[in-house]
Amino acid sequence: MSGAALGLEIVFVFFLALFLLHRYGDFKKQHRLVIIATLLAWYLCFLIVFILPLDVSTTIYNRCKLAVNSSPAESNGSYVTLAPSKQKCFKPWSYIPDGIMPIFWRVVYWTSQFLTWILLPFMQSYARSGGFSITGKIKTALIENAIYYGTYLLIFGAFLIYVAVNPNFNLQWNQLQTIGIAAANTWGLFLLVLLLGYGLVEIPRSHWNGAKRGYLLMKTYFKAAKLMTEKADAEENLEDIMEEVRKVSESIKYNHPLRKCVDTILKKCPTEYQERMGRNMDDYEDFDERQNTYPSEKSLAKLHKQVIYSVQRHRRTQVQWQILLEQAFYLEDVAKNESSATRQFVHTFHSQEPENKIIQYFYTPTVEWYWECLLRPWFYRVLAVVLAMFSVIVVWSECTFFSTKPVLSLFAVFIQLAEKTYNYIYIEMACFLTIFFLSICVYSTVFRIRVFNYYYLASHHQTDAYSLLFSGMLFCRLTPPLCLNFLGLTHMDATISHKNTQPTAYTSIMGSMRVLSFIADGFYIYYPMLVVILCIATYFSLGTRCLNLLGFQQFMGDSEMTSDLIDEGKELIRREKRKRQRQEEGENRRREWKERYGNRDDSTRSRAVHTDQKESSFSETNTNRPLSKYTRSNGRTERDRIELLQDAEPLDFNADSVSDDPLESDSGR
């Protein structure tokens, strides 16, 4: 089993990152480099979280071996036995051989740092650029990142000059590397505590409120009102941008050298606008002889950028509106079915997507009623209580993990108790649950936050390239300080525990923080205590109230603006529901008409075919008879029919009587 656990987790984490990226990104429409870079960033960050518990268990076993080797001992199979106390150091099932973890952490860490500080910022500017060629996009990205990269180079150069001039400093390359790592982790820890303080309160509260059907329905109405405003704004913005594109398309004809740029812009427009505008291929103008004012390539690049952004925003609001409608209809169905006497869940509208037959077999209407109306609220309440207990333990440990005698951090107490008995499965499970809960609190906040319309992770493949790359940057900057904070909570970091023991492979890659004592003994220890203030502020919704005062409408139960938006959203949902009902009624009537008269039409059609066959057979039997007897009469009958058709007048639909025979208007006829 040596190394097998590491290989399994590497494969599992890859598919987990791929699944999440498929949920938020769009593999078909977005650039492959954007998908690969974001997938690599997410994969490396998730990999650190999943592999770190294996590093902890391996380190505990190595410490046991060192303790055994320092005293008389005897070897026995896969473990080492102390002679005096007969203590056994069992090898964990997930033991990773020596030399693998340091190389693994070094590759993972420096790759993630290269992504977050160099590659992903450049790709953000590249993806957001409106250039029409690869060279133009690269040039724009370099110009936009010149200040970004120049600031880092200026700070680093000033620091090197200070170290070279000051004789008190005698830093080597390893120490400079540690200082750079400490600077990156300090920035990440600053943001980590802010996100963690929000997630520790909001995640248990969101699950507790998830058991309140009335609360969820009111919040859905509130979201519907806000989303309708955003949807209307996106449609209006798209109309304005398309009007500018139309003017540019009409002014720049097909023989203009910038026409290729215009065609590139037109390809990014929705299909209905492309058909409406066209290319104006019939109008030929010699632009060299006429003094017309044409837009420059720079202005076309700016317009191209606006088109990409407006089309993406319009598509996202349309999809989100449909998802929100389905959610509102479902919550209304739950509210109606709670008082059902039959205890069978009845949907107002049938699902538009085909359901799996296996799910339909097990998840019957009765099972759905018991789950949605009885079990699910209690499940959410119990889960909220468990998550709240975890949050309290994290807050307590964040405030007391610097205390080593006595050990006050509960996570450190759990790990030390398991270390005495060398229960590696318990150690790995405790470490995994701890770091997994911390990661959920931090990463879920990254998925929830929204910086106006510049950064927004929207599910159902509606996230743009800029937001995907920005999320990858945040993950790569937050994960290393998150892991160091976890090792500090469990006292596996020698800087916190003040013990001269073997460090974990991850800590050895980070280097000794003693090079910067004011960071190791000050910032890393006392700054995480700020999480208490942030949790209190989140519990009383201080941030939400501040945003509401600034004019950004937030869901607050005691606000008059919230009540108005809830009423508006309820009316919008009711209107969409009536519209959906009329559509389904029309489809049902057409289906009933086909079922009722479809067989009759088929029988009529078969009867007509049978009659034609009889007439054709009758004509075939009369082919051998003399035709001179019928030739003159048939010719007269054909002439009379043609004359009647020529003299017949068309129907007058404006006349008083429609049933009048137009042939009777001619008295001679």
Automatic annotation (TrEMBL):
Coiled coil spans: 224-251
Biased composition (Acidic residues): 658-669
Major location category of this protein: membrane
GO biological process terms, semicolon-separated: adrenergic receptor signaling pathway
CC per GO annotation: membrane
Region annotation Disordered: where it falls in the sequence: 576-669
Membrane-traversing stretches: 6-21, 33-52, 103-126, 146-165, 177-201, 378-396, 425-446, 466-489, 523-542
Pfam family, one: LMBR1
Subcellular compartments: Membrane
Keywords: Coiled coil, Membrane, Transmembrane, Transmembrane helix
Recorded family membership: Belongs to the LIMR family.
Protein name: LMBD2 protein
This protein's encoding gene: Lmbrd2
